[in-house]
Amino acid sequence: MTTLFLIRYGEIALKGKNRAFFEKTLLQNIKKALRDLAPCRIYRTHGRHFVEVTEGDATAVAKRLQEIFGIVSISPVAVADLSLEAIKAAALEEFAKVARPGIRFKVNTKRANKQFPLNSMEVSAKVGAHLLKNLSGLVVDVHEPEAVLDLEIREEKAFIYTERLPGLGGLPVGVAGKGMLLLSGGIDSPVAGYLALKRGVTLEALHFHSPPFTSERAKEKVIDLCRRLAYYGGKINLHLVHFTEVQKELRLKTPERLMVTLMRRLMFRIAQRLAEKRGALALITGESLGQVASQTMESMNVIERVTYLPVLRPLIGMDKHEIMALAQKIETYPISIRPYEDCCTLFLPDFPATRPRLQQVEEAEKALDIEALVAGCLEKTEVLTIEL
Length: 388
Ligand code: ATP
Ligand code: MG
Prior knowledge:
The chain has about 400 residues and is α/β, with parallel strands linked by helices. It contains 13 helices and 15 strands. α5 links the parallel β10 (about 180) and β11. The protein is elongated, with a radius of gyration of 27 Å. The model has no long low-confidence stretch (mean pLDDT about 95). Bound molecules: adenosine-5'-triphosphate and magnesium ion. Adenosine-5'-triphosphate binds near residues 186, 189, 287 and 344.
């Protein structure tokens, strides 16, 4: 049996000149996402996207469509020829699937095709009467219906549906430029990556690890997180930066209480270089305000000065429990709580400065050959391409 889905997208329509580009990107993203799922015909007509599932699991296709950014909602639709009789017959067949005695309903008609001889009110009335006559116990309620039969009368066909399955909304990945995500193995940064994808950003990811102090397992964890993000964002390049030398140098040559600040300044410098190389226009982190020592306003101020790139922090206004709930929803949470050590927890001071002073930080950095450290890290960076 063939199932046809009508795809609705919201904000794309608002974007004026970019509209065609946005629509094309969404179409490509849908094609990629469904490629291995079921044989489908995917096409666009009259400002709508359609996915026709010719065989296989249409429910799985629906679920996948509901998790593609840019899609606001989808509906499985029936198609009828442009005659009132055909529309009535198809409407009855569709509505019979949801009808039960006592259900309050209405028919809602949109007539895009003005050639059709009846106006939308007339179509709704005639189809409604047909349903009342053929299904027992229905009650018309145009104000608070429990079920709505939607009819769209378009150029060549009429589309009929009763269901609207919500999508994720947002913008299609690929319409908003590229960002470099600083991805730790923690709970927050994968969620930040997800929210950046939601606004159409293409992601590359960057992870600092410190072998042999961090394990192979810790690396696998980050790869798994990246794979989960690839579910929403398509292919992601993951840069694994060898950070051991930096951490050793910091421990040897700088004051312990500034360690976190100095380490994060080095992370941002390295991230900027990689971003430049890969054409990313912003850095993205999982920071939220006030969570830990390095996430006070004072710390962020001192840390961010080393880069001219915008640092996007999609979680800035979220509480930990909100972040955790979203991590659960996108299924990164169980990966994030695997117990392997992250490089940031190595050699951590007991009392990191929560209000580092720029002058002191810059003074401390004089003991380091920053350029050599950055270059050394970049040289040892390994790139993996992560796909689903
Ligand atoms: P997360 O849960 O994302 O690790 P966090 O609350 O533990 O965040 P921090 O450890 O201070 O906070 O890290 C703040 C942000 O810095 C992270 O969200 C991430 O973007 C980046 N970051 C931290 N450690 C790493 C790392 N090893 N590799 C890449 N980015 C990192
Ligand atoms: Mg962390």
